[in-house]
Amino acid sequence: MVTEVAPRHSVGTALTLQTSLGFLLMGVTIQAVPILEAGLGWAAAFPVLALGPAAGIGAIRRLTRLRSDRESEP
Predict the structure, then answer these.
(1) Beta carbons within 8 Å of 14's beta carbon, 6+ residues apart
(2) pTM of the full predicted structure?
(3) Which residue among 13, 20, 69, 70 is the one 20 to 30 A from 30 at the CA level?
(4) d(CA 44, CA 12)
(5) Rg (Cα) of the chain, in Å, rounded?
């Protein structure tokens, strides 16, 4: 989706940014989960982990709506 939305001249930069942010988020998550589990237990750590995929699904739905609105404009 990034390649479809980003301007042609900056597709490489957009993909690099997306990959870098993904690795950063993964590193933060790997460090944070043991702390959450130790402090709150797994019952609280798993719902926190679910926030990332839920935010991703929401962002993809929003982008899909924006794209369909843009395509339906005259």
Answers:
(1) 2, 3, 5, 6
(2) 0.68
(3) 13
(4) 38
(5) 17
